[in-house]
Amino acid sequence: MTEPPAAVEPIRGLEALVSEHRDRLLRLCRMVLADGSDAEEVVQDVFLKAWGAARGSDPPVDWARWLTRVAVNACRDRTRTGWWKRFRRHTDPLEDVTLRALAPSPEDTAIGGEIRQRLWDAFHKLSERQREVFVLRYVEGWSTEEAAAALGLTTGTAKRHLFRAIRHLRDTLGDAR
Amino acid sequence: MSRCLTDDEIAAAQAGLADRKVLAHLAACGDCARRHADLARDLAAMTRALIHTADHAVVRRATPARRGVTRWLAVSGAIAATVAAIIWLDTVVWKAMTPAEPADPREITALLDQLARTSPTAGDVPDPAALIREVDAATRLDAEDCERGIVTACADDATRVEEIVDAQ
């Protein structure tokens, strides 16, 4: 659990939040949105909301979960609005830019690059809800009940989304092997 | 449950959708328990792969050539939609508002004949000269009445007479 930002030093508190959670939220948003630029903007919006929440009368106690929940909901809002803005930006003449360059990890060798790409593509063929539930359950390590509550779903609905996601990814991995 | 679980039942169990019979079978059947564990391991590997891909994500942008094609398609679509709207307005709305003309000249002739039968004849129209004489006489009488002070607002009456003549 992250300590809430001190009210007397909100800027330092926000910096601490950004430092601790930015990469995790960025990854989460990239997985849900499949768009690096959108993910960056959503994460910035999330930290702006965190800034407002930290200065409010009732700041969140568990910042990690609060940020995750706000980020997932912000991703959903993002996919439902601003289609024209995305269309314009997607037609801007920019070259591909790698956001992070790390040495090959053990996971790289366990699942090859081609299979990883197929998994990534298959993951983004899942419905928005299926991706959200999967990310909260397996990437963030939440229980299905916690994920359902954060997404405003019943537990049974969240489990059905999770089942379809698992089946689709399992079939993709089986075909790829 | 004696038979082994299907792949979907294993996946459902992984998602927390398994009922008591499936859970009991998983506890009793070594093969199904192993398949369940294999799926859990695969999911963990897939999650790590997805995280890895997300962490190494690239900002995918359109190339200039693709941008040109995309914008060209958008502009073409807009133009096509505009032309379609104009055609629709012309064929549906404008023609619906404009009365249709008789196509056959014989219909026009028949219509004119009918109008001629229902119109007043020349004998029914009052003779303009007689009408003017009648009005002049009335005007003279009114002028005399005005001079004698019998009638007031003489100018208005004269004007009214003119209006009556104009109307006729």
Shape of chain B: rod-shaped
Distance between the termini of chain B: 107 Å
Distance between the termini of chain A: 39 Å
What structural class is derived from the secondary structure elements of chain B? mainly alpha
What is the average per-residue confidence, as pLDDT of chain B, rounded to a whole number?
Answer: 77
Task: List low-pLDDT spans of chain A.
Answer: 91-99
The tally of beta strands of chain A, per DSSP, is 1
Tell me the major beta sheet of chain B: none
Helix content of chain B: over 70%
Taking pLDDT < 50 over at least 5 consecutive residues as the criterion, the unreliable ranges of chain B are none
Assign a percent range to the helix content of chain A: over 70%
> Could you state the oligomeric state of the chains shown?
heterodimer
Q: What is the CA-atom radius of gyration of chain B, in angstroms?
A: 49 Å
Radius of gyration of chain A: 18 Å
Strand content of chain B: under 5%
Order of helices and strands of chain A: HHHHEHHHHH
Describe this structure in words.
- In chain A, helix 8 (144-151) packs across helix 9 (155-176).
- Chain A has helices spanning 10-33, 36-55, 63-80, 83-90, 106-110, 113-123, 128-139, 144-151, 155-176, and one strand at residues 97-98.
- Residues 91-99 of chain A have low confidence and may be disordered.
- By secondary structure, chain A is mostly helical.
- With 168 residues, chain B is an all-alpha fold.
- In chain B, 75% of the residues lie in helices and 1% in strands.
- In chain B, helix 1 (7-14) crosses helix 3 (30-55).
- The relative contact order of chain B is 0.04.
- The chains are: A mainly alpha (177), B mainly alpha (168).
- Chains A and B meet through helix 1, helix 2, strand 1, helix 5 and helix 6 of A and helix 1, helix 3, strand 1 and helix 4 of B.
- Strand 1 (97-98) of chain A pairs antiparallel with strand 1 of chain B, so a sheet runs across the interface.
